[in-house]
Specification:
The structure is a homodimer. Chain A has 17 helices and 13 strands. The first copy, chain A, has about 425 residues and is of the alpha/beta class. Chain A has an eight-stranded parallel barrel, surrounded by five helices. In chain A, helix 12 links the parallel strand 11 and strand 12. In chain A, helix 13 packs parallel to helix 15. The first copy, chain A, starts with a strand and ends with a helix. Chains A, B: Its cofactor is Mg(2+).
Chain lengths: ~425, ~425
């Protein structure tokens, strides 16, 4: 039986012939050497060389996207873009995400043959599920803990990002709960600073959330940002559990995949994977990696939710890219009977009732956390009206009723659409 | 007494007025919100807002480096580059590298005001040394274990990168040791795959190294690539120690800072910090981060060596950038009496005797690991002559004798300069 393989797809830009450029990539990331050495036998190459699976030319480009690339010594030097897929046998790196990263990224971005090189997708064989646990709660588990089943989970974030005391944070949570919110998250800047220690903050917040749950039966999900060193994260997790919390949050780029694996193995709660820092990898079209590729690494490692930005967001990401990321979260990574590793996409950044219909139309699903800050707090009739307007906007979208028509029967939605007209 | 602060310097490109752009950065990464909220009091801003420390205009630019940026709604929209320094009080994030990352990188790269934004430096207050150990061996400790004191440590790498069995690896090590090498490293692609299990590889390699040390007194340093998940890395470290090894290697981008902290706390050996994957962050001049900034995070977390590429390398990095990185490794991060956290820069990538003189001239130091692959193996008179030529080239450089002149007295150096003429 053929050995399982890992597949990685790249966007490349090069002045070299595409076949040669793709083979350079495969060689650099497996058995290749600049000078052929005695140990590089045919058998070794047969067993361990990365393979060029596909090359799709995407057309000529007029100027190099990035500086520092080289030209062929002779012949045609037309610069082209292409999509290239490589594969590796899993025996090269073992069932190890850190070693997969070294293989699929490694030094590729620095190769002189390329004036652009970006990882756009990666596919794992299901054997990785024997070493990585994948999401523990995923979509269904998150819905169960949040008690929200037939619509998006409506979320928001604590603001200002940093500086509030534990008590002031809890007071803000109280207001948001009274407004009818389903989900609240710490800002990623709020960790465990001395002015707002994690344990004190979570204790204060959970007192408010638990009181409300006792009175009403609705337990709001609070994503507690426990980002830190490993021992700290495990201890903070235990504190959240002890206080009755239902979600933890970690900044993926801050902690790395091995720490996430440890956190996942320890966790009794869904893990909200915050992607801050991804712009460093994702912003340039010519380098880094797509969020399609990025999220798969982290889903395998165990996150249950991740941020995908939002339609018409305040950042630089295009709507197409946002929706591609969100749809990917809802797409199985592995076929049945394997765990599919689907997770909750989290829409955020400048979101309001205005984006409900286009988001539903593009996503084709209500399985998401739809988070708004100003889109709730700045509603002319207050935060409770802001939350209601968001729910009404989604209900209308799902029912196929245009927002403007639905607004005729809902003063909150009408006010939201007017206030957040973009 | 004023609270200690963290400083971060960025290269930015924006069509907004520079002061406004810098304040947007500071706001986004601390107390700012798009809509002013009740909790954002003057006292909170005074205590927790990031501060704009300096703005240095670098001139106008004709076109945006990256897509997706916005323009001011009115007024002048000249696009400019600038260098901006921000600072944060450490109480915002605590003494925590993962939370520092969220603060200094965070969502900055995605902000619409910028068509380029790159972290170029970061400065920590020495308080971080109460939480992070810094390098355990550094330059002096590495020299002591390698037994090389008055010249660069001459190094090389196992090739082909992946595919050799433990026994074939050990045979290659035997040849390199006989050639007089000081330092050998695993390729970053060689981890713990089933065809070359880590423990078997290190046992086979150390048998050769220990035999040679017993006979000659010279113990070659072997950087064993233990990159993996945390439990794996600790167990592999213990195996290296048990076999008498003197160095471990980890791919920094694969493991993350929290895993490095755990590894450093556990390690009895120098940690060779491999930077593969850095091209994703470093290749574009308009996004990501410089290696100056990157290495400081990892030095604080505990690495003892790191790669800086080499002069006239096979990759895309400029010589200026290479030398800036290398000099930074040799520059104290903290003033006395604090630990200075200086580490060994590792030159590699297309290096040979040819680059010794310009490297010494630019670095002004012999404190480095100077690694060559083809520059040793492809020497016309064999690997032993390759190693001798490298040592002779460095001796000549340090003595101020031009390489061509020194080559008159050394056939190995003469042959190397001819063979590796670039």
């Amino acid at each position: 039986m053929a050995e399982p393989r890992i597949y990685a797809t790249y966007w490349i830009e090069t002045a070299f012939p595409l076949q040669q450029a793709a083979e350079t990539m495969a060689g650099e990331q497996s058995t290749g050497t600049f000078v052929r050495v005695p140990g590089e036998t045919d058998e070794l190459r047969e067993a361990h060389a990365a393979r060029v699976e596909e090359i799709v030319e995407l057309g000529e480009v007029t100027a190099p996207s990035l500086p520092g690339s080289g030209l062929p010594r002779s012949g045609d030097a037309t610069r082209r873009a292409a999509r290239v897929t490589l594969s590796w046998p899993i025996s090269n790196m073992g069932l190890s995400l850190p070693n997969v990263l070294a293989a699929i990224n490694g030094n590729l971005s620095e190769l002189k043959a390329f004036s652009g090189l970006r990882l756009i997708d990666v596919r794992f064989p299901p054997e990785f599920l024997t070493r990585y646990q994948g999401p523990q709660f995923g979509i269904e588990g998150t819905r169960r803990l949040a008690g929200v089943f037939d619509r998006p989970i409506i979320g928001t974030i604590i603001k200002p990002s940093v500086g509030l005391s534990p008590e002031a944070t809890a007071e803000q949570v109280r207001g948001l709960i009274e407004a009818g919110i389903d989900f609240i998250k710490d800002d990623e800047l709020q960790g465990d600073g001395p002015h707002c220690p994690f344990n004190a903050r979570i204790s204060a917040v959970m007192r408010v959330i638990n009181d409300h749950a006792d009175r009403t039966g609705k337990k709001v999900m609070y994503a507690a940002n426990l980002t830190g060193d490993i021992d700290e994260m495990l201890a903070r997790h235990d504190h959240v559990v002890a206080e009755g919390g239902t979600c933890i949050m970690a900044s993926m780029n801050s902690i790395g995949l091995p720490a996430m694996k440890v956190l996942r193995a320890h966790s009794q709660l869904p893990i909200h994977g915050h992607r801050n820092g991804w712009g460093m990898l994702g912003r340039s079209p010519a380098i880094g990696m797509s969020y399609i590729a990025f999220q798969k690494l982290w889903r395998l490692a165990g996150i249950d939710h991740t941020h995908v930005n939002g339609i018409d967001n305040k950042f630089c990401e295009s709507d197409d890219s946002v929706i591609a990321s969100a749809r990917e979260c809802l797409t199985p990574m592995f076929p049945a009977p394997h765990k599919d590793c689907r997770i909750m996409p989290v829409f955020s950044s400048g979101q309001s009732a205005r984006q409900a219909a286009p988001t539903f139309a593009a996503l084709g699903s209500i399985d998401c956390i739809f988070a708004a800050g100003g889109g709730i707090m700045a509603h002319p009739a207050g935060p409770a009206a802001g939350v209601r307007a968001l729910r009404q906007a989604w209900d209308a979208a799902v029912a196929g009723i245009p927002a403007a028509e639905a607004a005729g029967k809902s003063p909150e939605l009408k006010a939201a659409l007017e206030a957040f007209s973009g």
